[in-house]
Recover the amino acids of this structure.
């Protein structure tokens, strides 16, 4: 049993798919399948069962998953402790982030961290995951740190610090036939929307906004990428709530003025509550310092 096999097994279990698990680990699917197959052969147990086009853990797989997380996490902690023995500041830090970080200038901040701490290998994963999945990846150690919208409920083991805001604006193509005045939800009932998939945090808040107004809107297209949503808007396929920064200085997009409250969330920096490696602590501190500077 090898650590890499366990890491691949965890990825497949988390993603519910060999294809998505391979994408997460940046390997081809055949490599992922072969590694999990060898693990099953060594253990003499099937770890997954196929149900239609999806897979789920067997009883043996469920038992192994908790142990595998602990083993992989312990190995990661050992590597971090060994990295710090010579007194130098080095090691690998994995930062997960939602696709848009709002007012937090991530590219600028990452450049400063790499410039100030060249010994730290900073791995950044822009991920179209739901908020719960981001929290899971913090909890299981896949992400050392994560930039996420503020959750509606807290997780005891995860610490959260505000670093920015995520503002959404309603974008439309310039020739979209909409009244030239601040609009209410009712004015948009017959207009096709482009939105995030159901269950995503921003989609849920938008659905709740229209539900409170007693309006059922038409979500014609679901996408996970805000930039793609904006391209579809520009093509006249619908209107969409998108991050404000994506619409700035865009002459091919019309920002619709609304009567309803602005859709805004706090961007949080998430991490496990316990003390981590010097490299993780340094990157965490730097992110907070830069957030304070730009805020």
């Amino acid at each position: 049993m090898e650590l890499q096999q366990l890491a691949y097994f965890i990825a497949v279990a988390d993603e519910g798919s060999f294809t998505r698990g391979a994408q997460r680990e940046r390997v081809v699917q055949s490599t992922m399948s072969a590694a999990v197959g060898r693990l099953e052969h060594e253990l003499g147990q099937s770890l997954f069962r196929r149900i239609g086009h999806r897979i789920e853990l067997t009883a043996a797989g469920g038992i192994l998953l908790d142990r595998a997380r602990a083993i992989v996490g312990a190995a990661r902690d050992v590597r971090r402790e060994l990295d710090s023995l010579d007194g130098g500041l080095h090691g690998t830090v994995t930062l997960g982030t939602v696709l848009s970080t709002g007012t937090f200038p991530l590219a600028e901040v990452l450049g400063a961290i790499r410039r100030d701490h060249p010994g730290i290998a900073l791995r950044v994963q822009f991920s179209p995951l739901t908020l719960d999945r981001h929290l899971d990846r913090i909890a299981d150690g896949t992400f050392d740190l994560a930039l996420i919208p503020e959750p509606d409920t807290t997780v005891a083991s995860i610490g959260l610090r505000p670093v920015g805001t995520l503002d959404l604006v309603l974008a439309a193509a310039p020739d979209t036939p909409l009244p030239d005045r601040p609009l209410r939800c009712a004015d948009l009932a017959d207009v096709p929307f482009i939105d995030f998939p159901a269950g995503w945090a921003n989609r849920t808040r938008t659905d709740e906004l229209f539900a409170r107004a007693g309006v059922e809107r038409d979500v014609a297209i679901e996408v996970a990428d805000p930039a793609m949503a904006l391209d579809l808007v520009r093509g006249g396929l619908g209107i969409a709530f998108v991050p404000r920064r994506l619409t700035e200085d865009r002459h091919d997009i019309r920002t619709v003025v609304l009567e309803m409250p602005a859709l805004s969330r706090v961007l949080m920096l998430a991490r496990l509550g316990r003390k981590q490696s010097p490299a993780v602590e340094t990157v965490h501190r730097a992110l907070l310092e830069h957030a304070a500077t730009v805020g």
